[in-house]
Every structure is written in C-alpha cells, then in structure tokens.
Amino acid sequence: MSEDLVFVSPKPSKVELWENRFRRIFLIAVIAAVIFLFAAPFVIPVARLESFRNELVLFQLHVQRSVPSPQLPKPISYSDNCGNGTCDVGESRQNCWLDCFACNGNDRCDRTVGENQLSCPTDCPSQYS
Hints:
By secondary structure, this protein is mainly α. Among the domains are: about 50 residues, no CATH class; about 35 residues, no CATH class. Helix content is about 40%, strand content about 0%. The longest helix has 30 residues. It is elongated. It starts with 13 loop residues before the first helix and ends in a 63-residue tail after the last helix. Keywords: Membrane, Transmembrane, Transmembrane helix.
C-alpha cells in the first residue's frame, strides 16, 4: 500500500513577503555598488578625479590651519647666579630650576620653594624648623 503524500504549503505571510522583498532590494543594491566601484574609474574622467583629490588636500590644509597648536612654555631666562646650588634672591622655580627646586640643599627650610619635611629632609629635619 503506497499512499502519495501531497505537501501543500500555506500562503506566505506578510512578514515572509517583506523579507523576500528586502533580500531582493539588498541584493540589487550590492550588485549596483560593486558595478559602480569597478566602473567608476573608467566612467569618471581622470581630470575630475584629480580635481577632487586637490579639493581634499585643500580642505585638509584648511582644517590643519584652523586647529590651534598647543602653546609652548615661555623660555626660561637664567640669572647670573643660577646653577650655584643656592636659591638666591631674584631666583625662583620659574627662572632658575637648577637652584630653586623642591629641595635645594642650602641648609635652610624654605617653604616658599616647596621644601618641607617630606620633600627635603636635609633642609627640614623636623616639622618645627
């Protein structure tokens, strides 16, 4: 006994129709994009491509000029005594870093240049100096 089975598919739903339509449109768009990418160099004149490239370079230069560059610090002017190991009058961390850093070793706890017991124990041995 053999029975023939007949498969009857139901009508496609609206979602299935939309998915099929979307797939077709997507496939057509991909094919068009591939054709354009390969055909564009032959269709668009070389002079136009060169002009477009020049416009891009000009735009890039304009953007580079309009972005401000970082400000560099002003140059340090050293005094005549700078570098003698003592933070003399007229010297500061701004104009003589060699002598007026946080611990200058002048046996004087000078809090104006940032010396304290932690940063310079040789000049500031105790908290009461």
